Amino acid sequence: MLNLVLFGPPGAGKGTQSTKLIDKYNLVHLSTGDIFRHNIKGETELGKLAKSYIDKGELVPDEVTISMLESEVKSHPEANGFIFDGFPRTEAQAGALDKFLTANNTAITCMLALTDIPQEELVTRILGRAKDSGRADDANEETIKNRLNVYEKDTAVVASFYQKQDKFIGINGVGEIDTIFSSICSKIDEVSNS
Ligand code: AMP
Fold first, then answer.
1. What is the DSSP annotation of the chain?
2. pLDDT tens, 138-156?
3. 194 in a domain, yes or no?
4. 164 counts as catalytic
5. Which of these is catalytic: 14, 37, 51, 125?
6. Residue 164 CA: distances (Å) to CA of 83, 103, 116, 124, 159
7. Rounded Cα–Cα distance for residues 185 and 193 (Å)
8. Which of 6, 36, 10 is nearest to 149 (CA)?
9. Which residue range(s) make up the domain with 17?
10. Residue 189 lies in a domain
11. Is residue 191 part of a domain?
12. Is 14 an annotated catalytic residue?
């Protein structure tokens, strides 16, 4: 199985690259942000809870996020592999994911991290995306700043988690979408052929 963690700050291009990767590698795309938004639209209990955090740019509590992710993975027994997009976002989530995958006789292949994108560019990209995404958390500059702070405070450490396992791969996230996509693909091909 090819199980990829696509990592990077909000606005790094994880969603854009995931869409291209699932086509090429025939993987199941699990974006925790998308799953929360789907629940918000459907006005489920999970959606109501998630909305109260997402609107402020805070993380949804680990317990809720982990059990949601695990049930999504279980609902795809046919999968060749997964792209985890926006998950794990805390060390606790990374630990839980490892444990869960081990129990299911699989593991994370590697973390692909989109790096070196200046903060101002992230803010500009997110505000630009807000026009199409209709996401309230993309349209409000204060919320964006908070999301970026939360990333630095709680999420950036997740990279070290995979570095310690020798599974971290950094990719420069500045440039043309297709150029970044090619860099990601060469890294995936290297890892899967090794
Ligand atoms: P995203 O679509 O990845 O930008 O996520 C949007 C929002 O959903 C985040 O700002 C968080 O509030 C919430 N969220 C998404 N993924 C997670 C996660 N793994 N852990 C906690 N909250 C999350």
1. -EEEEEE-STTSSHHHHHHHHHHHHT-EEEEHHHHHHHHHHTT-HHHHHHHHHHTTTPPPPHHHHHHHHHHHHHT-TT-SEEEEES---SHHHHHHHHHHHHHTT----EEEEEE---HHHHHHHHHHHHHHH--HHHH-HHHHHHHHHHIIIIITTHHHHHHHTT-EEEEE--S-HHHHHHHHHHHHHHHHH-
2. 999 999 999 999 999 999 9
3. no
4. no
5. 14
6. 20, 21, 20, 33, 9
7. 12
8. 10
9. 2-183
10. no
11. no
12. yes
The reply to whether omega before 88 is within 30° of 0 (cis) is yes
Structure tokens at 49: 């809870």
Domain assignment present for 172: yes
Q: Name all residues whose Cβ lies below 6 A of ligand 1.
A: 10, 32-33, 36, 53-54, 57-60, 65, 86-87, 89, 93, 137, 147
Distance 163 CA to ligand 1 centre (A): 22
What is the per-residue pLDDT across 88-100, written as a single tens digit (0 to 9) for each?
999 999 999 999 9
pTM to 2 decimal places: 0.97
Place of tokens 């996020």: 65
CATH of the domain at 31: 3.40.50.300
Q: How many domains does the chain have?
A: 1
Confidence band (pLDDT; 50, 70, 90) for 187? very high
